[in-house]
Automatic annotation (TrEMBL):
Compartments, as annotated in UniProt: Mitochondrion
UniProt keyword Mitochondrion, yes or no: yes
Source species of the chain: Malassezia nana
Needed co-factor(s): pyridoxal 5'-phosphate
PANTHER family in the record: GLYCINE DEHYDROGENASE (DECARBOXYLATING), MITOCHONDRIAL, GLYCINE DEHYDROGENASE, DECARBOXYLATING
UniProt gene name: GCV2
GO annotations of cellular component type: glycine cleavage complex; mitochondrion
Name of the protein described by the UniProt record: Glycine cleavage system P protein
Length: 1035
């Protein structure tokens, strides 16, 4: 804390040139500026103009030269000075004091800088390797929804490790997203084809939440509202059942779990169930490996008006009769087996397929085929009117993101292997399972599914403790089912040596001779199993798949590495990502996703661990998780953190569920009203409904802040039933709410808890925090504030932080203990959600440290205000704070453009011609454009955006003056493609040059959109959600 003053004493001239000594009356703001002032003081006097340092012993010759802050921050110190001068401030301290409300500024000493020091990039690498060595990567054949897979290196390197794929955003702007839209359409086609159902979405968060979404869909379709029982077979994955229980509570659904089959024969339903059932979930194959013919059950459930959901395995479906053929209405599961490693639980793409009758109720993203303004095939997000950002509390789901990056890996895995390759992989897995069964029976151990059909899993009668002990001595993990049952799941990575070690583990436990890999080769030959036999190998005749799948050209054309490499890069070239330009999406925080923080994803010590491996094998992971929890607690002020929620929306649901659990424990079960401002994110009301709450809207004032009179009136009106309020701070209007503490106090006064939406935490960390404001719970978007990439639409992570009184209710898990002593049910299938990408946020925090994180926040504030200052003479900035500043984003109101025929989306599409991803459009007001500039953007790029916006404003002025027609101008016809530029005819009242080169710099660097403006209405009227040939689309 006093290093600043020591620097001033050592280098008074340098210090005075860069920062101003604080005046009396500004001491409360001083801590938030210390890091920045220290950075500026060091940088301006350095011989290297790009030199930026985090606080440490900078005068030591041993100080690292690869510090992260100077690589993470975009503007250089002298440019920061220019920004301050432009804004009319002489110091960072003065700027912060006039931007962040004084009553919520962090008090001095809120966090000890020494408790969160910054590591250099090389120090971080050494630390991550040290933790990696503490993880013991055993061969895990536990199954339970998580299998090993061989990730093709061409996919690992060119998608997972490629910023051209992982730094893009959800494809709301289809003209610059055609590549990943096509790939996600391939994913949908893959799932649809393998399940045999009519339509698939573009992925969900995991298998457990996909099953929960299916349950809610079933509830919404039942006509008799007295039907509220969701029946679950007792062989469904335990983590799925737990997620279902947690989700069912808010909807008044009764979960009934019972055996629905015995020895493969479906049981009769009781008369009571027939009267109350609205849906059923079965596992196919089940957790013990048994394949059951569920057709009789499906028929019985449908006879009483219920829906049938199958949780299934895509690899099995290459050999096994698909769920649609025996009557399933929906199929869900985990697609990770197609080329995505276990990752200690995730992230993985959950899949969801359904019949055509259910398509308008389906949750999540849906990619469809449409056409562009020139009549060419184009892809887009379809049927968005189903989603939470439009329907709010009436939405069918609160899903706001998916697992796009992982779904793209799954799709490319299917493209690479094709239908024949996938079936051969499946056949080998099944063949090895047959060999295993034969040898275990030879030892005298019996599989409980020995008389039934199976694919890759056997459950064996054997002394579990002795088998597991022998297996662990060979560094193998198996599933302990009970004292006398052990489960084994075979996958594509299993070798003859692996299988011999598995069999020998049972042999040793049974005091029998061990076997060799050579012996198993002989067994395979005796069973008629060879590489040549794989193409004809079948499972049990009753389950043999006879229908074709993946016949589309894309799955039959890219089977060499060269072909797939070119296909991947062809798609990548159609998408604008952070490798091309700024993505100034408001409320999305598209900052740098550094290579240093991403590297750990490729370490097998992190990505190869099974989530249910014994915890002593994951000590490195657990240390990392504890450190991340601790750091997030320090940054937010909370007492405890749960990392389990694997999206921001899931964080909302988890936080509200924790509140409800606390209130029920206090004997206040009647509290079920949630007050939500009308300007809130659409996920807020959708999540509140999911948690069993009734949404009561609170009005917003003309200045963009919450109407405290209305808040008090409604809090008092509902005081006996008030559960919570959900408030976003800074608000979705782009400004800090100076009276946030008063708003929170009102809710507390009338017995409610306060959920502070962490969507805009980017403007909080280091300068304020939720606890200073008085909040009880907050979710933290690690894929925004803490640098996890957006992946083109996922993955995300949405941990929650809570005050002490809520800590005991944090989410638990049925397999690996997590959460508090009174834990709510899990909100994700895996104990720590998307564990493998927690490494990214951990690395980001470690490399910046407390001081660097504050510096990042202040830089983001400065950048946003600089853009406001530069463009406000030509655009109306809708809301500003008390001193005329915005927070980390600004809302531009383009209502006045409408009088001249120009809509917000016209400006957005024209920005594409200037080489930018458009900001967030038509939200939180229909005429608005929400612009967020992160700390990572170079000053030159910020200037380029300002110049583009100002140039577009001049183009609008030409339309206003009648120099260009309202219906045929460069905004209405944007974006402009190279095909339009090179066409023989040009039917537009502006030149080709103005269309594509509106500013000179574009001649040196130009992103060409692959399609013209996409026709949204056509795509929804003519819904096609699977890939085919261009000729098929045209017809």
């Amino acid at each position: 804390m006093f290093a600043l003053y020591r620097q001033a004493a050592l280098h008074p001239t340098r210090f005075e040139r860069c920062v101003r000594v604080p005046r009396a009356g500004t001491l409360r703001a001083r801590p938030v500026a210390l890091a920045y002032r220290r950075t500026l003081a060091t940088a301006s006097g350095a011989s290297d103009p790009f030199y930026m340092e985090t606080p440490r012993d900078n005068d030591s010759v041993f100080a690292p030269q690869d510090t992260f802050l100077r690589r993470h921050i975009g503007p250089r110190p002298e440019q920061i000075q220019h920004i301050l001068q432009t804004l009319g401030y002489s110091s960072v301290e003065e700027f912060v004091a006039k931007t962040v409300p004084e009553e919520v500024v962090l008090p001095e000493g809120a966090v000890d800088e020494k408790s969160m020091p910054a590591l250099s990039e090389s120090e971080l690498a050494r630390r991550s390797e040290e933790l990696a060595r503490q993880n013991k990567v055993f061969r895990s054949y536990i199954g339970m929804g998580y299998q090993n897979t061989t990730v093709p290196p061409v996919i690992m390197r060119n998608i997972l490790e490629n910023p051209g794929w992982y730094t893009s955003y959800t494809p709301y702007q289809p003209e610059i997203s055609q590549g990943r839209l096509e790939s996600l359409l391939n994913y949908q086609t893959m799932v649809k084809s393998l399940t045999g159902l009519d339509i698939s979405n573009a992925s969900l968060l995991d298998e457990g939440t996909a099953a929960a979404e299916a349950m809610i869909l079933a509830l919404g379709t039942v006509k008799d509202k007295k039907r509220n029982v969701f029946l679950v077979d007792d062989k469904v994955l335990p983590q799925t059942l737990a997620v279902l229980r947690g989700r069912a509570k808010g909807f008044g659904i009764e979960i009934v779990q019972q055996p629905l089959q015995e020895n493969g024969q479906v049981q009769e339903l009781s008369s009571d169930l027939k009267e109350r059932i609205m849906g059923v979930l079965v596992q196919y194959p089940d957790v013990d490996g048994l394949l059951v013919d569920w057709a009789p059950l499906a028929k019985k459930v449908k006879e009483v008006g219920g829906l049938v959901v199958a949780a299934t395995d895509l690899l099995a479906l290459t050999m096994v009769k698909p769920p649609a053929e025996w009557g399933a209405d929906m199929a869900v599961g985990n697609a990770a087996r197609f080329g995505v490693p276990p990752g200690y639980g995730g992230p993985h793409a959950g899949f969801f397929a359904a019949t055509d009758a259910l398509k308008r109720r389906m949750p999540g993203r849906l990619i469809g085929v449409s056409r562009d303004a020139d009549g060419r095939v184009a892809y887009r997000l379809s049927l968005q009117t189903r989603e939470q950002h439009i329907r709010r509390e009436k939405a069918t789901s609160n899903i706001c993101t998916a697992q796009a990056l992982l779904a793209n890996m799954n799709a490319m895995y299917a493209v690479y292997h094709g239908p024949k390759g996938l079936r051969r992989i499946a056949a080998k897995v099944h063949a090895l399972t047959r060999v295993l069964k034969h040898e275990l029976e030879h030892l005298g151990a019996k599989a409980i599914n020995a008389n039934g059909a199976f694919f890759d899993t056997l459950t064996i009668q054997a002394p579990a403790d002795r088998v597991l002990e022998a297996a662990r001595a060979k560094e193998i993990n198996l599933r302990r089912v009970s004292d006398d049952q052990v489960g084994v799941t075979i996958d594509e990575t299993v070798t003859a040596k692996d299988l011999a070690d598995i069999v020998s583990s049972f042999a040793e436990a049974l005091s029998k001779p061990t076997v060799s890999a050579e012996r198993l080769q002989e067994v395979a030959s005796e069973l008629g199993l060879s590489a040549q036999s794989l193409d004809s190998l079948q499972v049990d005749d009753a389950f043999h798949r006879t229908t074709e799948y993946l016949a589309q050209p894309v799955f039959n054309a890219h089977h060499s590495e060269t072909a797939l490499l070119r296909y991947i890069h062809d798609l990548q070239s159609k998408d604008l990502s952070l490798v091309h330009a700024m993505i100034p999406l408001g409320s999305c925080t598209m900052k740098l996703n550094s290579v240093s923080s991403m590297k750990m994803l490729s370490f097998p010590e992190y990505h190869a661990l099974h989530p249910f491996a014994p915890v002593e094998q994951a000590q490195g992971y657990l240390t990392l998780i504890r450190e991340l929890e601790d750091d997030l607690a320090k940054l937010t002020g909370f007492a405890a953190v749960s990392l389990q929620p694997n999206s921001g929306a899931q964080g909302e649901f988890a936080g509200l569920s924790v509140i409800r659990a606390y209130q029920e424990a206090q004997g206040q079960q009647q509290r079920n009203v949630c007050l939500i401002p009308t300007s809130a994110h659409g996920t807020n009301p959708a999540s509140a409904v999911m948690a069993g709450m009734k949404v009561v809207p609170v009005q917003t004032l003309p200045d963009g802040t919450i109407d405290l009179v209305d808040l008090r009136a409604k809090a008092e009106k509902h005081k006996d039933v008030l559960a919570a309020t959900m408030i976003t701070e800074p608000g979705t209007t782009g400004i800090y709410f100076a009276k946030i503490k008063e708003a929170i106090d009102i809710v507390h006064e009338f017995g409610g808890q306060v959920y502070l939406d962490g969507a805009n935490l980017q403007a909080q960390v280091g300068v304020t925090n939720p606890v200073v404001m008085g909040a009880d719970v907050t979710h933290l978007n690690l894929h925004k504030t803490f640098s996890i990439p957006h992946g083109g639409g996922g993955p995300g992570v949405g941990p929650i932080g809570v005050q002490e009184h809520l800590a005991q209710y944090l989410p638990g898990h049925p397999v690996v203990p997590t959460g508090g002593n009174s834990a709510i049910e899990p909100v994700s299938a895996a104990p720590w959600g998307s564990a493998s990408i927690l490494t990214i946020a951990w690395a980001y925090i470690k490399m910046l440290g407390w001081s660097g994180i504050r510096t990042s926040t202040i830089t983001a504030l400065l950048n946003a205000n600089y853009v406001k200052e530069r463009i406000q003479h030509k655009y109306k900035v809708k809301y500003v704070g008390k001193h005329g500043n915005v927070a980390h984003e600004l809302l531009v109101d383009m209502a006045e453009f409408q009088a001249h025929g120009i809509q917000v989306m016209d400006v957005a599409k024209r920005l594409i011609d200037y080489g930018f991803h458009p900001p967030t459009c038509s939200w939180p007001i229909s005429t608005g454009m929400l612009i967020e500039i992160t700390e990572s953007e170079p000053f030159e790029e910020i200037e380029r955006l300002c110049e583009a916006l100002l140039s577009i404003a001049d183009e609008v002025q030409e339309i206003k003056e009648g120099k260009l027609p309202k219906d045929n101008n460069m905004l209405k016809r944007a974006p402009h493609t190279i095909e339009a530029l090179t066409a023989e005819t040009w039917d537009r009242p502006y030149s080709r040059e103005r269309a594509v080169y509106p500013v000179p710099s574009l001649r040196q660097k130009k992103f060409w959109p692959p399609v013209a403006r996409v026709d949204d209405a056509y795509g929804d009227r003519n819904l096609v959600c699977e890939c085919g040939t261009v000729d098929e689309y045209a017809s």
